[in-house]
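Reminder: ligand-aware prediction takes two inputs, not one.
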Amino acid sequence: MQIDRRHFIASLGGATAVSLMSHEAKAEALEAYMIQQLNPPVVAGRKFPKAADVEAQIETRFYRRGVGNLFLTTAEGAKVKKLAPMPANPTLVDFFKLRFTNTANHCFQSARVAMKNKMSDEVVLACLLHDTIQEIMKSDHGYWGAQMYEPYVPAKTSFAIRYHQALRFFEDKDHGYVYPDLYRNIFGEDYVPLPHMQADYKMLKNHKWYLEPRMVTVNDLYAFEPGVTLSIEPFLDVIGRHFKQPKEGLGNDNSPVAHMWRTIAMPDNPL
Ligand SMILES: [Fe+2]
Ligand SMILES: [Fe+2]
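Here is what comes back for the chain with fe (ii) ion:
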């Protein structure tokens, strides 16, 4: 992708502001900028694309938008990088440090908001994990993510991860969730959520755990702060209390989802 340096620097508040940013913060900001440029409003004079405009973009890309971050780089001319090897018995923290590099900071930001607002451990953990599955799969990511985490986390946490995806499409101003402009850009302003998400929304409205996924969507809204790079340290306690780390390591424990962890660990394996 062609980067307009001056426009990028201006978007960060000018050269002085950029000089004060850490190396990681600059890298994060550049990535956010590129993502934004990849999803520009398609029709001149209109703020948001229509769903039909979004569909028309499909054949302008060399990749499908549902693919996980680990499998490609969308920066024009760039190549994917060699990944650091995983330890023999990898833990969740190892995955955060070595494989969740595209999603970790957004998830840390979201979990930090949840902690600040004194939400339950289950919700903080759900926020911490909610989009990490996007390293291998973006399409229907709430359902994939819940499945991958289900054997290791409390039931409320996987419930919140599963249904945050559907609830992102449905506004709930009473609980502080407004429909995000990000989605008007990604899906088109007239996009209609798919039938399975409508059905899940209908089910969730009367569910006793409605607020768990709803709080993930609320904290999601405040988790795209550019230039704020967080680490996993503040969340080690909640992971220690609630994440059932298998002693053989994630991917080696013969669980029904072990292959998902192995795929994240070894995305270069051709088969
Ligand atoms: Fe998500
Ligand atoms: Fe998110």
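Residues 17 and 133 are 33 Å apart (CA to CA). The mean pLDDT is 89. We will return to this case in the review session.
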